[in-house]
Amino acid sequence: MLNGKEIVLGVTGGIAAYKAVELLRLLTKAGATVHVVMTRSAMEFVTPLTFQTLSMNPVVTDLFNLISEREIGHIALADRADLVIIAPATANVIGKIANGIADDMLTTTVMATKSPVLIAPAMNVNMYQNPLYRENEAKLKRFGYRFVEPASGLLACGWEGEGKLQEPAVIFEEAVAALTVKDLAGERVLVTAGPTREEIDPVRYISNYSSGKMGYAIARAARRRGAEVTLVAGPTCLADPWGIETVRVTSAAEMYEAVLARLERSTVVIKAAAVADYRPKCKAPGKIKKTDAAMAVELEKNPDILREVGARKGARLVVGFAAETGELVANARKKLLDKQVDLMVANDVSQAGAGFHVDTNIAKFLYPDGRIEELPLMGKNELADLLLDRVTALRQTGAKAGP
């Protein structure tokens, strides 16, 4: 995800400095090379050795330490960085940057860089709400600096309110977005994900093994690429993705209503959910008690969401998913044509690495003109971006111009 990217991580003096360690881990795990710059106050909370061990790079703490004999430290870092992140960022360092003060290694690096700068504030709620601070933040935003707004909650000082450093996973998501080309800017992408549950009685239901991971990966990738994203999600164990409108539903009927209510303003629809084809005709009002007699549950068809979207698509681009266990291409091709979609993502869930509850997939892309694009085993995040590459290409060729 961040392979080949060089990131400068600035850590300033606040109790939330310990969270920068987890952020560093996320960045390096994603393939980034991270150079940590610590202020003197930051070293009162976390030692440079911790960051050096995890980053496998020297930690810069002194303005006058040279990276090499021929390099001026802050200029070398500023030139090298694809992105500068400051987390946590105190009111003090934000104020200095906003007013052009460069009196330590971190502020001079920020002053010298032409790369994007992402700032994650952390401070007391009263400091955060102070007009002087608000003016400094607004000034930096006007100059193109990016902010990850803090969370609300119990602060280390005992106060409660805004000012808590946002979670490392959220800062990481914003860092990836800052480094992603916005080729989906202007698109409004509607994604469905996860299973549905069809109740038999108050304690039992019919469902499937879908985890929602594929749909969530698509939603996150589309947001990073500049789209306005709405995610309609069935019951999953996944947290709502940052920065994405997430609509939680349970049954196929609820998903049908949620999708159609949002179809009109969508330009791209990606139906990655595993929707139950059938539901019990009658739901028992109370728990069905076990007896010696056999029990039969009469089923009726659920509404076909993808078929309805295909029938109403107009100039929208519609992507469907076909999870099969046999005759993959034939079944996916029939579904593609019957439901009038522009691209069908087919996978055999009986294959190792391509089923539910795993982080990988093996897919084939099927197109209405008969083309089939066969893909190797890859991570779902990688597949999500590859799918959006195809969506972007279809939009750019004029196959779909948007409603």
List the helices and strands and how they pair.
Blueprint: E1 6-11, H1 19-29, E2 33-38, H2 48-55, H3 73-80, E3 83-89, H4 91-98, H5 105-112, E4 117-121, H6 125-129, H7 131-142, E5 146-147, E6 151-154, E7 160-164, H8 168-178, E8 188-193, E9 198-201, E10 204-206, H9 213-224, E11 228-233, E12 245-248, H10 252-263, E13 268-271, E14 278-280, E15 299-301, H11 305-311, E16 317-324, H12 328-338, E17 343-348, E18 360-361, E19 364-366, E20 372-374, E21 378-379, H13 380-396
Parallel strand pairs: 1-2, 1-3, 3-4, 4-5, 8-11, 8-13, 11-12, 13-16, 16-17
Antiparallel strand pairs: 6-7, 9-10, 14-15, 17-19, 18-21, 19-20
Helix pairs in contact: 1-2, 1-8, 3-5, 4-7, 9-13
Largest sheet: 8 strands, mixed
Structural class: alpha/beta
DSSP helix fraction: 25-40%
Mean pLDDT: 92
**Strand tally, please?**
21
Strand adjacency order, main sheet: 12-11-8-13-16-17-19-20
Quote the beta fraction: 15-25%
Give the count of structural domains: 2
By CATH, the superfamily of the largest domain comes out as: CoaB-like
Low-confidence stretches: none
Total of helices: 13
Termini Cα gap: 32 Å
CATH architecture of the largest domain: 3-Layer(aba) Sandwich
Q: Rg, please?
A: 25 Å
Family: In the N-terminal section; belongs to the HFCD (homo-oligomeric flavin containing Cys decarboxylase) superfamily.
Binding site for CTP: 277, 287, 303-306, 321, 335, 339
Cofactor: Mg(2+); FMN
Keywords: Decarboxylase, Flavoprotein, FMN, Ligase, Lyase, Magnesium, Metal-binding, Multifunctional enzyme
